Amino acid sequence: MAFPSAPSALWSVSLLTVLFTAAVHSNIVYDDDPLQPVTSDETVSVGGTVTLTCRVAESDNSSLQWSNTAQQTLYFGEKRALRDNRIQLHRSTSTELSITIADVQLSDEGEYTCSIFTMPVRTARATVTVLGVPGKPQISGFENAVPEGDKVTLTCTSTGSKPPARLRWYRGEQELE
What we know:
Elements: H1 6-25, E1 42-45, E2 50-55, E3 64-67, E4 73-76, E5 79-80, E6 87-92, E7 96-101, E8 110-116, E9 122-131, E10 138-140, E11 155-157, E12 170-171, E13 174-175
Parallel strand pairs: 1-9
Antiparallel strand pairs: 2-7, 3-4, 3-8, 4-5, 6-7, 8-9, 10-11, 12-13
């Protein structure tokens, strides 16, 4: 049996490094457990609707469950556990449990958990990010016309934005510092 020459061995190591790096950066999950739940992170604006989906590759007739950020059960299979009419069953099959949350609020942001009740229990997490829509900017600090040459302090505020809004001042088309 012949051993590879040094350049060939280096080429093999480089190829493995490239393949490993490609797998890591492409979010490929190599999991041999067909009962491991899979979820995805979701982003939604305040007032919108978000769908949380949990899937397993194979079914052993174990029940899937969604829990909220406080670990309160939302749905256990097709059964509603929390009395919040904003949360509805979207789909329930032997390999999937999907729920929707309507009229999403900032307080709905956080990490939700999908569990499958096998031995041992397997879980997956989905982070819900809620974006706040900024309110209309309000300018204060003036009551009447300001005579030319006088100084005035103006304040611009907007509430409800997440992430925080970036406010800018303009005089005509020119942005001010």
